[in-house]
Design a protein that fits this description.
The complex is a heterotrimer of chains A (about 240), B (about 130) and C (about 230).
Chain A (H helix, E strand, L loop, with lengths): L2 E12 L2 E12 L3 E5 L6 H8 L7 E6 L6 H4 L2 E4 L11 H11 L5 H10 L13 H12 L6 E5 L7 H14 L5 E6 L2 H4 L5 E6 L2 E7 H8 L3 H14 L1
Parallel strand pairs in A: 3-7, 3-8, 5-6, 6-7
Antiparallel strand pairs in A: 1-2, 1-4, 8-9
Helix pairs in contact in A: 5-6
Chain B lengths: L8 H14 L8 E2 L2 H8 L3 H13 L3 E4 L3 E4 L5 H24 L3 H21 L1
Antiparallel strand pairs in B: 1-3, 2-3
Helix pairs in contact in B: 1-3, 1-4, 2-3
Chain C lengths: L1 H8 L5 H23 L6 H10 L1 H9 L5 H6 L2 H4 L4 H29 L11 H31 L7 H12 L3 H20 L8 H26 L3
Helix pairs in contact in C: 1-7, 2-3, 2-4, 2-7, 3-7, 4-7, 7-11, 8-9, 8-10, 8-11
The chains are: A alpha/beta (about 240), B mainly alpha (about 130), C mainly alpha (about 230).
Chain lengths: ~240, ~130, ~230
């Protein structure tokens, strides 16, 4: 199993506050990871650094041996929380934009997904409901054959039907050459998707463990394990 | 398939596939879905399915034929063997629970016979 | 690069642009109405055409909004595509030119219609060159300010006493920077505008002034693109 993302001593400060306080972890290719933690644990900051949105930090981050920057943008797919597309875009514009700028974009697959997800090509993105926007984001981002997928709160505000469809797309996208990192606090939605979880608390990784290991060792679901760990953290 | 998130998923899937073979839903020689197809059907991580297939292959329950796919073993005794395995597991769990509650062997047998008699009556009246 | 330009031009389809053009056309119409109905005094045309110019910063903000942190959080796509920032900035600049030209046309139209007024004259070639240069310079200072602000805002640890300075830098990098726009307008844009429009005497040669304006813009854009490339902080 080769390593796709390696992080050593990652520190990111905003003024005096440290959003990330010495993160050390590795991600292998061909796996689905859950990056779990409460709000303001640093999940979004971590993903943004890997996505090369934030380039000021201390420590080392390597994607296939290269620092995040222009070269990695071509093989990293980042999905942010909230709005994502340009406000003048229609659904067809979003597809064409990705097609024009990302060499690993599979337009045929994207169009097929749009059809399956009942997204109209001519709809303006700003008129879509939250659930439809989430479907569009995922349809487009997951139509890239990227090496690394960084999905930040892919399920926030998404209705159950959209959610199931999104999970189907994720399962379909997955292959041995790529890695998916899901940052979410909706652990119950992703219980069966995750190979491994990494728990992030106050800017540090406090646990790294395989999903089935949690179940085998303590007879807990990932969600229960998470609660136990964080209750303990709060107490100390 | 319904999952219990507190037990290893791969074990649950393995047991499910074994049960399907034991009770005739999957027959010897039948082709199984590919790992990816199975992952989509069962809505789990493909790596989990890969692990299941690898372990089942180790146990000679399924065989992988290069270029052709994955198939249920053509062992004609397989269904019976698996059935025995499953039934023994169920029985062991049932007996352990009853013993844990404090019942003795004679009591366990009595309850079992009563239950089975009632079940037979219900079936006769249908 | 052509593709970037294509998408940048699509901003004209957006709500923001429509509002700005609506505003500009309205102010032009209002100006014309006022001038044709009232007794005109000297330089009234100039006065009434000033509100039209407000359209200019509006257009700039729309084309460069991705570099404003608050806006970029909502529209991060430009930062995710694998193209150098140099090309993105260039595309933004080129895409903003038609908008600027449209505003200038409205501005100029009032002048044209009311050119018989005392003190009103039509612009010569050099003035058009300078006005375009000032438009570009205004954008380059804005973008460079955003780039520098982005680099500085979290890096420097200010002592408590100077925390107001930190807030100032943060605000310069984060907001649509109305206050900063005013700063640059006062320091750089207004004097240049004055020398272009209102006086025959300028301390250096006209050619040199025009060259400095364009050269400064090029340098500022280049610096901004380098800073974004190496030190994005979104």
């Amino acid at each position: 199993m080769s390593e796709i993302l390696s992080v050593s001593n990652l520190v990111k400060r905003y003024g005096e506050k440290a959003a990330l306080n010495g993160v050390n972890c590795h991600f292998e290719q061909g796996k689905i990871y859950g990056l779990l933690g409460p709000n303001a644990a640093g999940k979004t900051t971590f993903l943004k650094i890997c996505a090369a949105l934030i380039m000021i930090y201390k420590g080392q981050v390597l994607i296939d041996g290269v620092r995040p920057g222009l070269a990695t943008k071509a093989k990293v797919a980042y999905l942010s929380d909230g709005d994502y597309f340009l406000d003048w875009m229609r659904v067809s514009d979003a597809v064409n934009y990705f097609n024009d700028f990302f060499g690993d974009f599979d337009k045929v697959r994207a169009l097929h997904l749009l059809h399956e997800l009942e997204l109209e090509q001519s709809s303006p993105v700003r008129n879509l409901s939250k659930g439809m926007k989430a479907r569009l984001k995922l349809a487009v981002v997951l139509s890239r054959r990227a090496r690394l997928f960084l999905l930040d709160e892919a399920f926030d505000g998404v209705d159950p039907v959209s959610r199931e469809k999104i999970i189907d797309i994720m399962l379909n996208t997955f292959d041995q050459e790529s890695t998916i990192i899901l940052a979410t606090h909706h652990i119950d939605y992703v219980e069966r998707l995750l190979d491994e979880v990494k728990l992030l608390h106050r800017g540090e990784i406090i646990r790294e463990i395989a999903a089935d290991e949690i179940r085998q060792n303590s007879g807990q679901s990932i969600g229960e394990y998470y609660l136990e760990v964080f209750r303990h953290e709060k107490a100390t | 398939m319904r999952y219990n998130d507190r037990e290893p998923i791969y074990l649950q899937i393995m047991n499910e596939i074994k049960a399907q073979i034991a009770f005739g839903k999957l027959v010897p020689g039948m082709q199984l879905p590919t790992i990816k197809e199975q992952a989509l059907i069962m809505r789990v991580n493909p790596n989990t399915v890969a692990r299941v297939y690898a372990l089942l292959e180790q146990e000679r329950v399924i065989t992988k034929q290069k270029g052709l796919g994955t198939f249920v073993s053509t062992n004609e005794h397989l269904a019976r063997e698996l059935k025995v395995e499953i039934v023994e597991n169920l029985t062991s769990r049932f007996v352990s629970e009853m013993l844990r509650l404090g019942l003795g062997s004679a009591e366990i047998l009595k309850y079992l016979q009563q239950f089975l008699a009632r079940a037979k009556d219900d079936q006769d009246t249908l | 690069m052509k593709k970037l330009l294509k998408y940048q031009l699509m901003n004209y389809r957006g709500l923001g642009m429509q509002l700005i053009f609506g505003y500009v056309l309205f102010m032009t119409f209002l100006g014309w109405l006022t001038l044709s109905r009232t007794d005109v005094f000297a330089n009234m045309t100039m006065l009434l055409s000033l509100p039209i110019l407000v359209g200019i910063p509006g257009i700039s903000v729309i084309h460069y909004r991705h570099y404003i942190p608050m806006s970029s959080a909502r529209e991060p796509l430009l930062h995710l595509i694998p193209l150098p920032y140099f090309w993105s900035l260039l595309a933004s600049l080129l895409a903003s030119l038609p908008g600027g030209a449209a505003v200038a046309a409205c501005y100029f139209m009032l002048f044209l219609v009311f050119r018989h007024q005392p003190g009103i004259y039509l612009f010569d070639g050099w003035q058009w060159l300078m006005l375009t240069g000032i438009y570009i310079l205004a954008q380059s200072t804005f973008v460079c300010q955003l780039a520098v602000g982005g680099v500085l805002k979290d890096r420097l640890l200010w002592p408590k006493k100077l925390s107001f300075l930190r807030k100032l830098v943060w605000w310069g990098a984060d907001s649509t920077s109305t206050m900063y726009a005013m700063f640059w307008v006062v320091l750089v844009i207004s004097p240049l505008y004055y020398y272009t429009m209102f006086t025959d005497y300028i301390p250096i040669s006209r050619a040199l002034l025009a060259l400095s304006v364009y050269a400064s813009s090029a340098v500022l854009f280049y610096v901004a693109s380098c800073l974004f490339e190496k030190y994005s902080n979104y």
